[in-house]
Amino acid sequence: MVLLGEQIKGRKSVKLTNKDFQLFKNECKKWISRFELHDWDIVYEFTRNSGDAGGCHTKYEDCQAIIKFDRGFVDGHLISKLTHVKEVAKHEMIELMLAPVNILGKSRAFDETEFNHQRHRIIMKLMRIL
Questions:
Q1: Could you tell me the CA-to-CA distances from 53 to 5, 64, 71, 87 in Å, in that order?
Q2: Under CATH, to which class is 4-129 assigned?
Q3: What is the rounded end-to-end Cα distance, in angstroms, of the chain?
Q4: Whole-angstrom Cα distance, residue 103 to residue 106?
Q5: How do the domains of the chain map onto residue ranges?
Q6: How does pLDDT run across 10-65, given as a tens digit for each residue?
């Protein structure tokens, strides 16, 4: 989750367009490929006034994710609109890549073997990327 106010407090709000949302989805797909996240069933939502620039909500058992992108944007005195779209997409895909470990870490039925397996999968992905 990327908070709009954290980066750009007090700046003028600009609305993002459907074209920006399409770019966001395309950027997400680029990172899905790079991070090898093809096993996730992803739904994209173009939200309004969520307070966050984006969001990643997952259902680990079914490998389902809702990736949200907020229509609000704060004027690019600190970053451009294009940079904003790309950074939010990358951030949410990193969230998705870490979701299995995050979910297992919060689980009451914690399975150390599964946790280590998921952690190792992430390490191997990063080794192929970096």
A1: 9, 20, 8, 10
A2: alpha beta
A3: 23
A4: 5
A5: 4-129
A6: 556 678 899 999 999 999 999 999 999 999 999 999 998 777 889 999 998 889 99
